[in-house]
Amino acid sequence: MPFGEYQYSVDDKGRVIIPPSFRDFVTDGMVVTRGLEGCLYIFPLANWRRVEEYLGNLPIINAESRNFVRFFYSGASKANTDSAGRINIPATLRSFAGISETEKTVIIAGAPNRLELWNDARWKTNLDEILMSSPAPEILQELIG
Question: What pTM does this model have?
C-alpha cells in the first residue's frame, strides 16, 4: 500500500510525476477520476476493476446512485507513466481539482487502495479541517492505545 505525500508541479502539458515510491503500485496502468473533497483519485487498474464492478451493481432506479456514477465514472481517464514517470491529467480533471496556470503545485498522497492528487492549497485546508472537526484524535487514541 502506498503511503506518504509528495509535492510536485504540473507542467504546461498537464503532466505530473508519479513519485518513484508509488510507481510499483500503478505499474500496470491506472485510472484517474474525480475524487471527493475536490481532489483526484488515481486507482491502479486492478483496484479500478473492483470500483467498476461495484458501480455496475448500484441500482439504476436510485437517483443518488445514478448521480454518483455520473460524477465518478464520467470523469475517468486511463493513464500510464511515460519514460520520465509522468502521467497526463486531462484538462477537465485539472479544472475540477483546481489545478491551473497559476495553481500548478500539487500533492500526491498515498491511501490504502488509491493515490490522491490535490491542489496544494486544498490539501492544506483539508488537513486543517480534519484536525479541527473530525474524530481524528479519538481514532488515533484507539489505534495506538
Answer: 0.90
